[in-house]
Specification:
Blueprint: H1 6-17, E1 26-28, E2 37-39, E3 45-47, E4 54-56, H2 58-70, H3 75-90, H4 97-117, H5 126-137
Antiparallel strand pairs: 1-4, 2-3
Helix pairs in contact: 1-3, 2-3, 2-4, 2-5, 3-5
Length: 140
């Protein structure tokens, strides 16, 4: 998916996160690598590879999903993608800014550890990556 429809992706995340356990935690995908989203010829989106799923705060899943884009998008493109994705999501599900802030740093550390473990190089220059991550941290 060279040019994903972030509004549609926001919708499928909202649908996934609507399924909660008795503790009100949502089903979370957890492996939000861009390769785990497919689109068919009719424009319908699908999530695949649920081997790491868990019940958790949906904000963690959303941060992780956007964290991948921090590494590959310009600042302008990240802002637009984030806006489309989060606005679409919020039409169906709430996002708790306190939870977002509470877990952002933890997700960032786990993301970086996983990238190192799988020998994935970041594409963008470090100053753009830092700017993108700062934006994402403070989006709420």
């Amino acid at each position: 998916m060279a040019n994903p429809d972030f509004s549609k992706l926001g919708e499928i995340f909202a649908g996934l996160h609507s399924h909660k356990n008795k503790s009100s935690l949502s089903i979370c995908h957890n492996d939000t690598n861009p390769k785990n989203y497919l689109v068919d010829k009719n424009g319908k989106y699908f999530m695949i590879d649920f081997s790491d799923w868990t019940f958790d705060y949906p904000e963690k899943d959303l941060i992780h999903f956007l964290m991948f884009r921090c590494s590959i998008y310009s600042h302008k493109k990240l802002k637009l993608a984030s806006e489309l994705f989060l606005n679409s999501y919020q039409k169906k599900q709430d996002i708790n800014p306190i939870i977002w802030k509470k877990f952002y740093h933890e997700i960032e550390i786990k993301f970086d550890e996983r990238r190192k473990r799988f020998n994935k190089e970041e594409i963008l220059a470090s100053n753009i990556l830092k700017s993108n991550r700062s934006f994402l941290k403070n989006v709420f």
